[in-house]
């Protein structure tokens, strides 16, 4: 079967990558639910091939402020994972994790977060991505390690410029596996798995679709 | 007040006064604004990689600092700009995530800004102002009427360069 290309994927490739997202994000959600004692929901994952000009269709307008937690992926496959919440969700998660009333600091500017609160958010990123990677690692029998998380509060466009640049070396589109998750109306977040183009081939081959 | 024209990622546009140009959420990408103060023709480039010669697939000229500036100048000249009068202002080129800078991909912002400046030098285009580097994203607006380059960042007061 043909190798993966940014011109388009065949149905089989789409389905397999979607299943990767399903299994990874499912495990990640379970971990997050347990950690926070919340019941989280998850949408069906999307495999998105997005032209750079439509980058706003991934999460929202390029200039919307969000919290992004980035982790590098190393081992048998390379790439990155990006974990994105809107600002309201981030505060809600911090409050839940620190066992505070959810209404506390409701209107706080995220740049005023204390070190402790920042580190709490980072830890959420760490645990969630760790379980995501473990699940796909077990499925594909490949070694995957995540680098320590790094958190930034900034515009969506600015956050996505990093993976976009990586794909810019091959074409004018971004290929990613996206899951959306939430808890009622309080939390809304996105999990983006963005392997490098070569690593997509390795994933597919490991599952017999190469 | 003219219309506000949006420039996407790896994209470029040229316009005449009173129109203005904007690009949202510059991260490691660089926003190069060129301007002819006499005819008030301006152009904005949102480039994401420094060097087109390093990359095989380089058909989209607006993606790179070097070919992007070439293309932008051509389009501006077609609108009536005079090459020798052009001046430049640039913004962006941030490092969005603090990680071990050993990772080449993370330092692309810095390299983008350097490549843009080098290209401007080759054309003898004077750099009037810049707001590059650091670790935050920028949304920029360029007003061809005044030549003002407005820069907005999260949690910071807007500034004009």
Walk me through the structure:
- The complex is a heterodimer of chains A (210) and B (161).
- Chain A contains five helices and eight strands; from the N terminus they run H-E-E-E-E-H-H-E-E-H-E-E-H.
- Chain A is of the alpha+beta class.
- Chain A has one domain: Chemotaxis protein chec.
- In chain A, strands 1, 2, 3, 4, 5, 6, 7 and 8 form an eight-stranded antiparallel beta sheet that branches.
- In chain A, strand 3 and strand 4 form a beta hairpin.
- In chain A, helix 1 packs across helix 3 and helix 2 crosses helix 3.
- The mean pLDDT of chain A is 84.
- Chain B has 161 residues and is α+β, with helices and mostly antiparallel strands.
- Chain B has a single domain, classed as 60s Ribosomal Protein L30, Chain: A (2-Layer Sandwich), CATH 3.30.1330.
- Chain B contains two helices and ten strands, in the order E-E-E-E-E-H-E-H-E-E-E-E.
- In chain B, the strands form two sheets. Chain B has a five-stranded mixed beta sheet, with no helix packed on it. A five-stranded mixed beta sheet of chain B has the order 2-5-4-6-7, covered by helices on one side.
- Chain B is globular.
- Chain B starts with a strand and ends with a strand.
- The relative contact order of chain B is 0.21.
- At the A-B interface, strand 3, strand 6 and helix 4 of A face strand 3 of B.
Keywords:
heterodimer, A: 210 residues, alpha+beta, Chemotaxis protein chec, eight-stranded antiparallel sheet, 5 helices, B: 161 residues, 60s Ribosomal Protein L30, Chain: A, five-stranded mixed sheet, 18% helix, globular
């Amino acid at each position: 079967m043909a190798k993966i290309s940014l011109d388009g994927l065949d149905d089989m490739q789409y389905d397999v990558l979607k299943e990767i997202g399903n299994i990874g994000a499912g495990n990640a959600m379970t971990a997050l639910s347990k950690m926070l004692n919340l019941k989280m929901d998850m949408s069906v994952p999307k495999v998105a091939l997005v032209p750079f000009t439509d980058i706003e269709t991934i999460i929202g307008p390029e200039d919307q402020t969000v919290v992004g937690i980035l982790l590098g992926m190393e081992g048998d496959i390379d790439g990155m994972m990006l974990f994105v919440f809107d600002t309201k969700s981030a505060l809600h998660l911090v409050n839940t994790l620190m066992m505070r009333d959810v209404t506390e600091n409701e209107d706080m500017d995220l740049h005023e977060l204390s070190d402790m609160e920042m580190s709490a958010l980072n830890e959420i990123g760490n645990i969630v991505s760790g379980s995501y990677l473990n699940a796909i690692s077990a499925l594909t029998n490949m070694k995957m390690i995540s680098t320590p998380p790094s958190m930034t509060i900034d515009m969506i466009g600015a956050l996505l410029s990093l993976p976009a640049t990586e794909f810019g070396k091959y074409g004018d589109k971004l290929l990613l596996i996206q899951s959306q998750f939430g808890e009622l109306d309080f939390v809304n977040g996105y999990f983006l798995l963005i392997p490098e183009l070569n690593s997509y081939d390795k994933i597919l081959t490991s599952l017999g679709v190469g | 007040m003219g219309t506000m024209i949006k420039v996407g990622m790896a994209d470029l546009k040229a316009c005449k006064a009173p129109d203005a140009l904007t690009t949202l959420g510059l991260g490691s990408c660089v926003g190069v604004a060129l301007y002819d103060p006499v005819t008030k023709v301006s152009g904005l480039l949102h480039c994401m990689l420094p060097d087109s010669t390093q990359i095989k697939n380089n058909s989209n000229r607006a993606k790179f600092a070097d070919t992007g500036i070439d293309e932008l100048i051509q389009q501006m000249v077609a609108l009536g700009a005079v090459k020798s009068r052009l001046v430049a202002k640039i913004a962006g080129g941030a490092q969005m995530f603090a990680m071990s800078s050993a990772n080449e991909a993370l330092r692309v912002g810095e390299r983008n800004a350097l490549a843009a400046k080098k290209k401007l030098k080759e054309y003898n285009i004077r750099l009037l102002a810049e707001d590059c580097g650091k670790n935050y994203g920028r949304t920029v607006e360029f007003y061809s009427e005044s030549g003002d380059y407005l820069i907005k960042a999260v949690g910071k007061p807007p500034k004009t360069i």
